[in-house]
Please model this.
Amino acid sequence: MGAKTYFVINYGCQMNESDTEHYAGQLEELGYRPAGDFHDADLIIVNTCCVRESAEKKIAGKIGELKALKTKNPELIICVAGCMAQKDGAKLIKKHPQVDIVLGTAYVNDFKDILLDFLVQRRRKGRVYDDLTIHQSEFEGKMVRQSNFEAWIPIMYGCNNYCTYCIVPYVRGRERSRSVENIVAEIEQAVQEGYKEFTLLGQNVNSYGKEFGIENAFAKLIRRVNDIPGVERVRYMTSHPKDMSEELIKAVAECEHVCENFHVPFQSGSDTILKQMNRGYNLERYHHLIDTIRKYVPHAAITTDIIVGFPGETEEDFQATLKLVQEVEFDAAFTFIYSKRSGTPAAKMENQVPLAVKHERLNELMEVQNLNSLKCNEKLVGQVVEVLAEGPSKNPEVWSGRSRTNKLVLWPLEGKTYQLGEKVYVKVDTAQTWLVKGKAVDHE
Ligand code: SAH
Ligand code: SF4
Ligand code: F3S
Model:
């Protein structure tokens, strides 16, 4: 008999992608091998997200689908992990009796022990691990990273912000930071393995290290990571406008390897709505932040997240959001329709916005933003951008990669070959809304 196989079905944000790499690592340490398709796997992890209802519905459908697989193969082990597992706990097993293990978000690095325990006991009753207050273990094994040259590095877990619409603090727990030593050791190890680009992850990276009592700990961490030999690019997400400091912006400006890319979610352009959202900043502060970024890092790309249809959002409030989008000219924006999350304060607010209005607003917003994205990309025409090669695009003769400002860049091979992660300089000649195209050139 061959080795047992696993498959992780991943949903949600980069934090989940990183957790998935931790699961894969632990499974491979136990001798499991990746399955090409979840239908063939001996063990399936569904790593879930519950940030919006749409995500949850899709995932519930997927978990439902696994029931037939379990009927066919009663030995199949099904684990539901991540934010929905944390939120629903034992209810998940009641609803989906085919699930063997419900793994909350604080147990990611204990998965190996939990699975071993399950295998030994083989108790045919679902198990639930959903205590959010346990001390999260440091990961000590080998990660199985998805990319050969880009690495996710979690630097902190949880969120203390309690934006009134958001479920994340309830499913990821209180903020806790990893030590600088552990973070640096993980990056040094990954450099040894050939990794070049590092994205530091946290729900609110600007409050990294608050519990250590060090001022500007995140800016200091960025500088420290920048100085690790072999690190070519540093990215981080997500920044909260309330906590983003001038010190951080200066660090980005001064650190050679830190990419000129700021993701600064503003959510709404109306002070009334921002207050209702408990975001902790106003429009004036946000504009000041953007001006500071432009002052220190003039060619930076700035991206954002926006919610339309938050309870009580009037046409006037929405127009304020549109105005901000037009004024800042974001390189890209992730736009969302407000989704009611039970247990959050906003779910109980009056004046919920009708769905049709939300859709209208979203469409209008996307139209404006798409023009901005195109305009930002057009500014790159004629310029040479630094790209790390990610591999072939849909057309195998055309390769793609990301610029320092995180733009998708396409260029034809023209008989050349590239290594994954190789630095390529591309002179941009065509701009589209979602990408730019050009030709590889020698770097002067
Ligand atoms: N910690 C990050 C992002 C977390 S979730 C931050 O604060 O920026 C990613 C995005 O999902 C948020 O920025 C927000 O725009 C969106 N979001 C969160 N809860 C939502 C909800 N209930 N409905 C719609 N969008 C939501
Ligand atoms: Fe959610 Fe706000 Fe925390 Fe981001 S900062 S994860 S939006 S509560
Ligand atoms: Fe979703 Fe959890 Fe991330 S709710 S967005 S997977 S932190």
In short: The chain is about 35% helix and 20% strand. The radius of gyration is 23 Å. The mean pLDDT is 96. The pocket of S-adenosyl-L-homocysteine (ligand 1) is lined by residues 51-52, 165-166, 168, 203-204, 238, 240, 265, 267, 305, 307, 336, 338-339, 341 (CB under 6 Å).
